[in-house]
Amino acid sequence: MATTVSRTRATVRLVSKPQTVSAARAHVRRFCERVGFESDDPVRVTSELASNAVEHAGDYGDYEVSASLHGRVLWVEVLDCLPCSLPSPVEVLEDAEAGRGLLVVAALTHRFKVELRSSGRKAVCAGFEED
Predict the structure, then answer these.
(1) How far apart (Å, rounded) are the C-alpha atoms in residues 54 and 128?
(2) Would you say 68 and 74 are in contact if contact means Cβ atoms under 8 Å apart?
(3) Dihedral Cα 126, 77, 59, 90, nearest 10 deg
(4) Domains and CATH numbers, the chain
(5) Average pLDDT of every residue of the chain
(6) Cα 25 to Cα 20: distance, rounded to the nearest angstrom
(7) pTM (global) more than 0.85
(8) How far apart are CA 45 and CA 25, in angstroms?
(9) What are 9-53's pLDDT values in tens digits?
(10) Which of 123, 93, 90, 124 is nearest to 104 (CA)?
(11) Cα dist. 2→11, 23, 24, 64, 66 in Å?
(12) 106 Cβ contact list (under 8 Å, min separation 6)
């Protein structure tokens, strides 16, 4: 696990294993506490995005979790090494056992986007504004 921290940004690189999702949550929680962001939504969203990175891109390499503050918007970004699969929220059947994660993410965020970065990595980004 490698971590970089500045006053307005913190990034951690994690091994793509289910056990590291809790470290991703803790990383974002510490950042929120440090910058005084009081909502739990960034931590909830981090859990979903990190879990997705492990499940869908885990065989392709480690993943990164970044939290940053841009004005009044706190951004959480999860980058993985599977650029060919750009996810989007989709409606699922009522009795489906999976597939609602990005719907939950979209509901908890003020801004949501998926980007292919110049590094060839996919970034799933969630923005939060504190009320």
Answers:
(1) 23
(2) yes
(3) 10
(4) 2-129 (3.30.565.10)
(5) 83
(6) 9
(7) no
(8) 9
(9) 999 999 999 999 999 999 999 999 999 999 999 999 999 999 988
(10) 90
(11) 8, 12, 12, 9, 12
(12) 89, 112
Q: 51 is written with which tokens? A: 């879990």
Q: Which two tokens stand for residue 2?
A: 């490698």
Residue 7 and residue 59: Cα distance in Å, rounded?
Answer: 33
Residue corresponding to tokens 């499940």: 55
Q: How many helices (H) and strands (E) does the chain have?
A: 3, 6
> DSSP per residue over 31-83, as a string?
HHHHHT---SHHHHHHHHHHHHHHHHHGGG--EEEEEEEETTEEEEEEEES-T
CA distance 74 to 49: 15
Q: What is the three-class DSSP state of 120?
A: coil
Q: For residues 109 and 39, what is the distance between their CA atoms, to the nearest angstrom? A: 11
Query: Residue for token digits 């959480």?
Result: 76
pLDDT digits (tens, 9 = 90+) for 63-101: 999 999 998 899 999 998 876 665 555 555 455 454 556
Q: Which sign, positive or negative, has the C-alpha torsion 104, 114, 75, 56?
A: positive
